[in-house]
Amino acid sequence: MSAAFDVRYTAQLARLNLSEEETAKFQAQLSQVLAYVEKLEKVDVTGVEPTAHANAVFNVFRQDVPRDWFTPEQALSNAPRSANQLFVVPKVIE
Amino acid sequence: MELTSLSVAGLQQKLRAKEVSPADTVRALEARIAQVDPQIHGYLSRDFDAALKLAESADVSLPLGGVPIAIKDVINVTGEPCTAASKILLGYRSNYDATVIRKLRAAGAIPFGRTNLDEFAMGSSTENSAFGRTNNPWDTSRVPGGSSGGSAAVVASHEAFASLGSDTGGSIRQPAALCGCVGLKPTYGRVSRFGLIAFASSLDQIGPFTKTVRDAGLLLNVISGRDPQDSTSLDEPVPDYTAQLGRDLKGVRLGLPREYFIEGVDPQVDSAVRAAIKHYESLGAEIVDVSLPNTEHAVGVYYIIATAEASANLARFDGVRYGHRAPDPTGLLDQYGRTREEGFGPEVKRRIILGTYVLSSGYYDAYYLRAQKVRTLIRDDFTKAFEKCDAIVCPTSPEPAFKAGDRSDDPLKMYLADIFTIAANLAGICGISVPCGFANVDGRQLPIGLQILGKPFGEAQLLQIADAYEQSTDWHNAQPTLA
Q1: Average pLDDT score over residue span B239-253
Q2: HSE on the CB side for B9, CA within 13 Å?
Q3: Can you list the pairs that B276-280 forms with residues at least 24 positions away whose Cβ atoms lie under 8 Å?
Q4: For chain A, how many structural domains are there in total?
Q5: Structure ipTM over 0.90, yes or no
Q6: What residues 218-247 of chain B have any CB closer than 8 A to a CB of chain A?
Q7: Angstrom distance (rounded) from CA B173 to CA B161
Q8: pLDDT tens digits for range B264-286
């Protein structure tokens, strides 16, 4: 399976630019890690249910009531760019 | 005795007897930090004036009244930085308290100082911090373990009375072992994760570092409990975790998992842990053999599940709402790609890519779903073992602290440092590391940790078992010599 592993393509999916040097290095290092985790192929998991959370609880509800939280100023206080109580991002629609 | 050498319980006695004030305590810590932190680099930041202000109004009659507690720089504290030791969060300031911080404050504690970690808690040595590594107090050329290396090192070097860390695959227990202090990972769901920067949401749990087992109980008393803001926190009763301390161990059965006493464990670690088991026998505990047959798969399962969850959790770092943004983006994709390239360090990038890959179309079943199924087998191993014993004892780390730089560019080798701690996170059970001896390496004494694993929500008995060992041995009183 790890033969199909392509760092460049996967990094694109993750919206993460990589230098040429990093691409080559991670390709080698992560191929090694994948070869290690592929040992799991040999485990018989027939009929075994997957575990998503170790001590799982289901249907957790709380009262849907308004409460105080961030003011607009607080919500924007760490924004790299903001204006008119909004986050400013590069233009997305031509 | 120096004030900063006291345990939390010892400090409380002096505070309540009015022999010292909370402000004296904060000042004593500040002096100690100024003296030794240049060698340790356990702290990323601290606000002395803010802590002193809190100290002035502290109510010492409260459960942790007037006790300063250092916080891993991945837990939000209002008005303070929270960098996750990443350049991507440089300059960020929290606008809210994590639930554990709110609970600490309500109990009278003073959050003081932000401790170093591997970037986004990804690592086993604290070398992955974007702001420089933390040094082991017992030998500053060695690592303190990780990812909560700063939280462990500041307690071991008496720059803090106690601290909070987070444990996703051993990030509390392993640094506690390598630095020679107590580190407790609570059961998954025992402590709210609200306000903890998420790494792997199905594995992360916040817990304390302390000088004694009793202190760990005192902190757990305060931070435990169901929180409506974390739907995975469970509504289990919170007992007084110190109430069971001091009871004898007659009738207590301790399980020895044969898969944890294997070749590859450092001989000095192996003999220290075996000596601890003999000691338990002399205290009246019954030793039984148990088997955890799926142990060999734990590291593989962990690095699929943890990276998958991390790749999703770290998608929020996109340069829009907080943190670093690459300059002059030509469009949104360019902004995402370069912001994340510039902001994340190599280990975080590796894990995002691995996690994205195992979740990607065509590979999900082969990697992620299969890993979740093997996780069930690992969990079942513990359920079966706990039918035969009350707790499991084994080494925390296969070896004492390693030299800085030794494996920082060999991810697989670094991942294997967590071989004995990871399964507890996958199974969601609780675990603790307590000092159980020293290894003599190159003429230096390096701490060894004994790991004790308990049943889900079995922290009261876990602490009782750990305390019985600690109180009948002297290892926890040893102190590193710092110039």
Answers
A1: 97
A2: 10
A3: B276/B393, B276/B436, B276/B437, B276/B450, B276/B469, B277/B393, B279/B469, B279/B472, B279/B473, B280/B249, B280/B254, B280/B393, B280/B468, B280/B469
A4: 1
A5: yes
A6: 228, 231-232, 234
A7: 17
A8: 899 999 999 999 999 999 999 99
pLDDT in tens, B375-389: 999 999 999 999 999
CA of B244 vs chain A CAs: smallest distance (Å): 24
Residue A33 lies in a domain: yes
Task: Spell out the residues 6+ positions from residue B349 whose beta carbon is closer than 8 angstroms to its own.
Answer: A16, A18, A22, A26
Beta-bridged to residue B196, according to DSSP, are B75
Q: Which DSSP string corresponds to B441-472?
A: ETTEEEEEEEEEEE-TT-HHHHHHHHHHHHHT
Q: How far apart are CA B448 and CA B179, in angstroms?
A: 8
Range 65-94 of A in CB contact (< 8 A) with B: 70, 74-75, 77-81, 87, 89-92
Residue B400 above 70 pLDDT?
Answer: yes
B363 and A77: CB-CB below 8 Å? no
Q: What is the DSSP letter of B477?
A: G
Q: CB–CB of A10 and B426 under 8 A?
A: no
Q: What is the CATH number of the domain that holds A14?
A: 1.10.20
- Provide the token pair at B332: 């949104």
- Evaluate whether B70 touches B160 at the Cβ level (below 8 Å): yes
Residues B244, B200: contact at Cβ < 8 Å? no
Top residue of A2, A27, A29, A37 to mutate, by most chain B CBs within 10 Å, is A37
B448-465 pLDDT, tens per residue? 999 999 999 999 999 999
Residue B165 DSSP symbol: E
pLDDT attached to residue B412: 81
Question: What was the pLDDT predicted at A1?
Answer: 53
Q: Which domain holds residue A36?
A: 2-41
Sequence-distant (6+) residues with CB within 8 A of A87 are A76, A79, A81, B320, B321
A13 touches chain B (CB under 8 A): yes
Query: Does B90 contact A at CB distance below 8 Å?
Result: no
Say which residues have a Cβ less than 8 Å from residue B348's Cβ, sequence separation at least 6.
B86, B119, B120, B122, B128, B314
Three-point CA angle B463, B224, B188, nearest 5°: 80
The candidate with the shortest Cα–Cα distance to B475, out of B448, B453, B443, is B448
Quick check: is A19 in a domain? Answer: yes
Q: Report which secondary-structure segment, H or E, holds B431.
A: strand B430-441
What mean pLDDT, rounded, does chain B reach? 96
pLDDT of residue B483: 67
H runs (alpha helix) in B314-364: 332-343, 346-359
Q: What span, in angstroms and rounded, lies between the C-alpha atoms of B242 and B218?
A: 7
Q: Which residues contact B41 (CB under 8 A, 6 or more apart)?
A: B116, B132, B133, B134, B135, B150
Phi and psi at B434, nearest 5°, equal -125, 150
- Predicted local distance difference test score (pLDDT) of residue A2: 59
Q: What are the backbone angles phi and psi of residue B297, rounded to the nearest 5°?
A: -95, -5
Q: Which CATH class is domain B3-227+242-254+389-402+424-477?
A: alpha beta
> Per the domain annotation, does A87 fall within a domain?
no
Pair of tokens at residue B334? 């360019």
> CB-based contact (8 Å) between A43 and chain B?
yes
